[in-house]
Amino acid sequence: GIEDCDDGGDVEWLAGKIARMRIFADEEGRMNRSVVETGGGVIVVSQFTLHASTKKGNRPSFLRAAAPGHSEPLYEAFCRAMEAETGRPAGRGEFGADMKVALVNDGPVTIVIDSRARE
Fold first, then answer.
1. pTM of the model
2. Is-catalytic flag, 110?
C-alpha cells in the first residue's frame, strides 16, 4: 500500500529490502534464502486496503491510502525497481482494478514492512 508521504526513496528501500529478505528455505528447511538467491520472481499487486483504519466504527476508512495520481507512478517505479533488483520481469496486477487474485501460501508467513520506520 502507498501513503501520501511515500516517495521514490521508499520505493528503492523497499525493493532492496524485499529482494534481499531471506524468507525462502535453504537445504535444511530454514528461512535463509532470498528471492534473488532462489532465482525466483515477484508479483506486484497494488493494494490500498493495507492502509485501512478500523479505529472508528465498523466500516474501514482508507483515508491514509494515497490517491491514484500519487500512488500509480510509485507503483510503476516499484515494479521497475523490483525488476532491477531481481534481474527478472515482475508480474503485475492491473493498478486500481478489482481483481481476483489466487495464490498458494507456503507457511503461513506474513511479514509487514514499513518504509517510514525502515523495518
1. 0.91
2. no
